[in-house]
Amino acid sequence: MINASILERRFPGRRAQLKRDILLQALQCFNAHGVEATTIDMIRAQCDTSVGAIYHHFRNKDGLVAALFFAALEDQQQLMQNYLEQASDLREGIAALVYSYVDWVVAQPDWARFQYQAHSSMSKGPHGEELVRRNSERGSQVAQWLAEREQSTQLQDWPVELRASLIIGQSENYCRSWLSGRVSTPPTAYRDILAEAAWRSVSN
After folding, report:
1. Which of 71, 60, 62 minimizes the C-alpha distance to 24?
2. d(CA 167, CA 68)
3. Residue among 78, 76, 81, 57 at smallest CA distance from 67
4. What is the model's pLDDT at position 144?
5. What SS3 class is residue 188?
6. From CA 76, how far away is CA 79, in angstroms rounded?
7. How many C-beta atoms surround the C-beta of residue 79 within 10 A?
8. Per residue in 139-196, pLDDT tens?
9. Phi and psi for 155 in degrees, rounded to 5?
10. What is the pLDDT of residue 9?
11. What is the rounded distance in angstroms from the CA atom of residue 9 to the CA atom of residue 29?
12. What is the spatial distance between Cα 116 and Cα 112, in angstroms, rounded to a whole number?
């Protein structure tokens, strides 16, 4: 069953109940049929509301996808911030980035599946610039945290824009395999190994 708490945090209150219901059913449709194949009418049938109500809240399918994607992104970022706040040095910070990523995927598998499949349409769609801006802000936040604790001898002198891929890339690859059923062991079982691999990827 899909965890609705992300929507409750992003769209709180009784007045947002219909919006949350529409988004929850949309998420189920997108995961069951794919973002491209899902239609507004399919979502309307699932949540037993009118097409007009969906357009009123989200304008179109791109608006639905964006609302879900950004809700998931914000939830993921909040967990990352919480983990980073508990890290005291650079190595613990690298581990915190990995831990927060794999822990979120395992806790929110339906949201993670949606994020992976919707990323391309988000990047190419009308909300692509907003996605770039949000990712840039998150990257800047992480870069600042690392810079405040970094010693010149601790990290490889490689381009900064490569760090996210080097730190999270291996975890993302395994998480995708787990979500697709290609592997059965959850990523959290390997979080320490993945964190160590991330550290070795960027440290001297």
Report:
1. 71
2. 25
3. 57
4. 87
5. helix
6. 5
7. 18
8. 888 888 888 886 656 888 888 788 889 999 999 999 999 999 999 999 999 999 999 9
9. -115, 150
10. 93
11. 21
12. 6
Distances in Å between the alpha carbon of 76 and those of 40, 108, 115, 154, 184? 27, 10, 11, 27, 23
- Over residues 31-35, the mean pLDDT reads 95
Query: Cβ distance 118 to 38 under 8 Å?
Result: no
Angle among Cα 46, 52, 58 to the nearest 5 degrees reads 80
- 155: which 2 tokens? 């990290």
The residues, any chain, with a CB within 8 Å of residue 147's CB and separated by 6 or more, are none
Max CA distance (Å), the chain: 60
Three-state secondary structure call for residue 110: helix
- Three-state DSSP class for 161? helix
84-139 confidence digits (pLDDT tens): 999 989 999 999 999 999 999 999 999 999 999 999 999 999 999 999 999 999 98
- pLDDT of amino acid 143: 85
